[in-house]
Amino acid sequence: MMGSDICYAGEQLSKAAPQVLLALPFLFALCLYLAAVAVSNRYRRKWPYFRTACWVAGISLVLSSVTGPLAARAHVDFTAHMAGHLLLGMAAPLLLVMAAPVTLILRTLPTGAARTLARLLKSKPIRFLSDPAVAALLNVGGLWVLYTTELYRAMHESLFLHLFIHFHVFLAGYLFTAVILYIDPIPHQKSFLYRTLVLILALAGHGILSKYIYAHPPAGVAEAQAKMGGVFMYYGGDAIDMILVFLLCLYWYRSARPRKPLGESVSKTV
Amino acid sequence: MAAKVESDNVDSHRSGYLSKNVWSGFLFGVGFIAFFDEAVFHQLLHWHHFYDKSTTAMGLVSDGFFHAFSWFATIGGLFMLADLRRKQGFWPARWWGGVLLGAGGFQLYDGIIQHKMMRIHQIRYVENIIVYDMIWNLTALAMILVGGILLMRTRNKRERPS
């Protein structure tokens, strides 16, 4: 009796620990963003409510993925795990990228510190990581490694791996979304065509992996669950990627608008 | 007089965007037929299977790339259409020619290479599948033919008024 109680408490603790450790950095990021909005609004143009709302919604999606009932079910239910993956690796990053956090930090920091950050963004490692092809490889390639090797089983047994993989899924998802859309300023930008091709390849890699999971359940996942999870990953990924594709096309559409010489445009509109 | 000037104006814009009209239509056509396939044959009728155990590895990859490409093409093609319209370069007949060529081309690829050679899935899991295959591929050929005729007839703007 006593033994089983201790065992139970231990199990609860082992489930609570990753949830708390995963949630803390995001709660910190939420506070930091809101503080930056408050500070910078005092001496600059008002920061758009839309961006703040995106950040709050994005953090909420992350928290609903890594804590609470969904995170608890993810240990035993592969479909719940997949729902969490879609939220953490795709939906939340999209919202957080739309919140333009780098722009916010740059306008909040004092000039000197902002310059240092801008210089950091120009550094070689960032330049390498911000190539959409590299970001796509980290993002989709990471998922292939997770679901087609023993890593998926190991993730449920090691706290370190659990944390590492979840942070990786989020960070790779964020990096990928950021360098496809370029909401925040980043040096060495690639063309729309290049980003389009990378996005299509990444989308394909995600879709193929979904069907692969459907047919080849990851280590420790029952066949029926793998099928549901695979279908969920396929259509869920499509839904979120549709927004990403729409935004990328919209930014192309805006940037490609015809610019006529002043005199000509006046005579044409008459 | 004003109308004459206007139509000349549109014509000159159109002829400057001959290939863009085709590409916009083609991309939308590929995207639309793939979306139609997904919505009608996978979701509504449940004829197609999400994954058929006889699928080859190549089929899985081909299906993945075409699915991703068509998903992008639907949206990208319509943004290109919006771009043509704001530049007054939209030519409906030529655009529809592109749509039919894209839709027919994809359907033929899907019907012959993907269904038959790569065996990603069959149209329907019944005995006389050949009937379904014939209708599928003949429809594709008809779309390519009509699309091709439309493109031929809109090849050169100067021949049209006479």
TrEMBL record, chain A:
UniProt keyword annotations, A-Z: Cell membrane, Membrane, Transmembrane, Transmembrane helix
Pfam families for this protein: Caa3_CtaG
Parts of the chain that traverse the membrane: 20-40, 52-72, 84-106, 126-147, 159-183, 192-214, 234-253
UniProt keyword Transmembrane, yes or no: yes
Compartmental location: Cell membrane
KW RNA-binding (keyword) present: no
InterPro entries per record: Caa3_assmbl_CtaG-rel
Main location (coarse class): membrane
Domain of life: Bacteria
Membrane protein topology class: Multi-pass membrane protein
Protein name per UniProt: Membrane protein
UniProtKB/TrEMBL annotation, chain B:
Pfam (any one): DUF2243
Keywords: Membrane, Transmembrane, Transmembrane helix
The keyword Transmembrane is assigned to this record: yes
Transmembrane segments: 21-44, 64-81, 93-109, 129-152
UniProt key word Transmembrane helix: yes
Identification of the protein by name: OrfL2
Top-level taxonomy: Bacteria, Bacillati, Bacillota, Bacilli, Bacillales
